[in-house]
Amino acid sequence: MLKRLDEFKIGETGLIKKVEGEGRLRRRLFDMGVTPGATVYLRKKAPLGDPYEITIRGYELTLRKSEACLVILEVEDK
Questions:
Q1: C-alpha 23: how far from its chain's center?
Q2: SS3 46
């Protein structure tokens, strides 16, 4: 099942299938390691829903909600 990262619940894991967006924002996500094929684990969400803390490629990364909605993942079953 495909979901956007901003739709994930805390503790869910998924495999990045596609990164949407254009120009600088997309390049910035790629530079941070948010690329197709990477596994993402949603660690935390701030109380008001922005930002998100994820684990990707062995490190922790914080993304804004506007960035998280550009990342489409396949949810891994537990």
A1: 18
A2: coil
- Please list the ranges in the chain whose pLDDT falls under 50: none
CATH of the domain at 13: 2.30.30.90
Rounded Cα gap, residues 73 and 15, in angstroms: 5
Range of the domain at 40: 2-75
Rounded Cα–Cα distance for residues 67 and 69 (Å): 5
Give this prediction's pTM.
Answer: 0.87
What are the residues whose beta carbons fall under 8 Å from the beta carbon of 2, sequence distance 6 or more?
Answer: 17, 72, 73, 74, 75
Domains identified in the chain, total number: 1
